[in-house]
Amino acid sequence: ASRSPSGGPLLTPSQSLDGAGGRRSGYITIGYRGSYTIGREAQADAKFRRVARITVCGKTALAKEVFGETLNESRDPDRPPERYTARYYLKFNFLEQAFDRLSEAGFRMAACSSTGTCAFGPEQGGPAEDKIWTSYTEYVFCRD
User: Where in the sequence is the domain holding 37, given as residue range(s)?
Assistant: First the structure.
């Protein structure tokens, strides 16, 4: 068998190192942009808009294994299975559905991060008393 410079086996693009149970180990990051409006004095009834697009970052083979036909590959077609991409997105808009698929495939959440900024308020021509906020959130899932 061929060896890499580090002494380990040389893998072809169609091979991968498998984790426990014969499944590939690795990471998949799920991200989305959202927006919400908070009325005067931060009322408890903030209005959230639906998630427009859920992005997927990770190795192509892992993303295809987990999401199958619901993975939209149009932004990065013909990506080799063992290469990373951050250009895929899902054909559905429900985070719970993405989390269920990851859980069923043996992934667990390892980290998450979110940012939020005020998009505009009255001084930028927005609604008189409301402020519209935008956010970007990422969830990192791993499988050993």
Answer: 26-121+129-143
